[in-house]
Amino acid sequence: MPLKAKYSPLAKPSFANMYSTLTSLSPREQLIAMVVGGLAIVLLFILPLSVVSGKISSLKTGISKSQAKLQDVMAKVQQYDRLQDEIKQLERQYGRGVSSVTSTVESLTRKVRLAGAIEVLKEKPVTPGDRFTEVPVELRLKNTTLKALVELIYEIESYPNALLRIRNLQIKPRRAKRGFLEVSMDIANIKLRQPVEEGAS
Q1: pLDDT (tens digit, 9 = 90+) per residue, 154-163?
Q2: I need a labelling partner for 121 at 20 to 30 A (CA). Which of 102, 114, 155, 193 fits?
Q3: Is the dihedral of CA 13, 16, 19, 23 positive or negative?
Q4: Residues 6+ apart with CB under 8 A from 163
Q5: For the whole model, what pTM was predicted?
Q6: For the stretch 48-87, what's the b/e string if a residue is b when 16 or more beta carbons lie within 10 angstroms of its beta carbon?
Q7: 194 Cα distance to chain centroid
Q8: DSSP conformation class of 199
Q9: DSSP line for 124-140
Q10: What distance in Å separates the CA atoms of residue 41 and residue 36, rounded to the nearest whole number?
């Protein structure tokens, strides 16, 4: 008597066997089998694809956020570098000083043809600050015109070799000479104080 071959779950499935099994079922069983097979396809192929797509989308989002953070960091680094350059430029400007403020002011008055109008030009006490030191001089002019005064103020405020600033500017018209002025002002050379080295007395 011939023996019937038993179904082995380890046996490799073939299309013929699957088709033969499907056709031997009733229509209701065939419908159930097709529904179950469809769900199996979804679980085996579509669901893993969806999971992988979600991971890829999450990675893209993470990369975009990381790129945005990197751009923000780079922008802050560039801003920091610009500020450092500005600080160094200010330190160079404020750190310079003239050997003699009176000689510098006298030279500037000669430049605008006001040397003959100097009545007083003398040094004043140094004004120390926490970070800056002001070295001032007092300047008094007589018989100067407004045009010459404006030229002198411009030469002082735009002096390229040191930072000079005008303080306590006072202007009075001369009654004896119409069109001429009496002027008094303080001109300060502002310098950055040098840090005291440790161990220095």
Answers
A1: 999 999 888 8
A2: 193
A3: negative
A4: 93, 94, 96, 189, 190, 191
A5: 0.52
A6: eeeeeeeeeeeeeeeeeeeeeeeeeeeeeeeeeeeeeeee
A7: 27
A8: T
A9: ---EE-SSEEEEEEEEE
A10: 9
